[in-house]
Amino acid sequence: MTIILLARHGQSDWNATRRWQGHADRPLTEKGRAQAMTLAGRLQHIELDAVYASDLRRAADTARVVAESQGLELVELPKLREVDVGSWSGLTREEAEVRFPDGFARWRDGFPGWEDGESYEEMTQRVLGAVLDIARAHEDGRTLVVSHGGPIRAIHAAALGLDVHEYRRLRPVEPNARLSAVCHVNGALTELCPATEIDGLIERDKAERLSAAAQPPTPAG
Question: Is 23 a catalytic residue?
Fold first, then answer.
């Protein structure tokens, strides 16, 4: 079993003013930098094999704090970026509702409201591809992936076997710097684990590894 810890980036300047960001490369606020430090402290007792992040600086700067605290090199991947919201980038909800009333209604139903940019299916395909590659590269290990609200919901949906649109209607976006986890078993993402259950998941993983190590070796085939 491979454990993939997930965290949304810390608060950015456009998070603070409640604007769509998409691929816009916005910086962390002072609060966002403090959230990154808190995240690193939360993970201090968990040994990580690697730290990955979206290459957008709000995610990369959050992840770098954790990577440095664990003595690891940060790996930045463009495939972990937020969904591209096209012409909605920089708009508040109020502005989007006025300019694109039909699109805003679609967005409220869990679908993209923008006509340009990316669909949630396209975003999901690229993000899950990256996450599965990460899991295969760190088989039976533990990694941290710092990404964005949209990608994290897509990963959660995959672990639960849900359509990304359905999951968007069921659950709000993850708060900034909130931890969660999914497991990778037999080539698939499974078992969504919220922040409050991560320590239990890590302890179960340790116990299973110790039990496996105590078994006599099997003969070579």
Answer: no
Entry pTM? 0.91
Q: Give residue 193's Cα distance to chain centre.
A: 13
Nearest C-alpha neighbor of 166 from the set 152, 153, 181, 179: 153
68 is catalytic: no
Closest CA to 62 of 124, 164, 144: 144
Specify the pLDDT at position 17. 96
Overall average pLDDT of the 3-14 stretch: 98
Catalytic one of 9, 138, 156, 184: 9
Q: Which of 30, 82, 184, 191 is catalytic?
A: 82
Helix, strand, coil tally for the chain in percent (to 5): 50, 20, 35
Q: Mapping DSSP to helix (H, G, I), strand (E, B) and coil, where does residue 216 land?
A: coil
Q: In Å, how far from its chain's centre is CA 114?
A: 22
Higher-confidence position of 32 and 169: 32
Q: Give the list of residues 6+ apart from residue 22 with CB closer than 8 angstroms, or none.
A: 82, 83, 84, 85, 86, 88, 89, 117
Written as one letter, the residue type at 156 is H
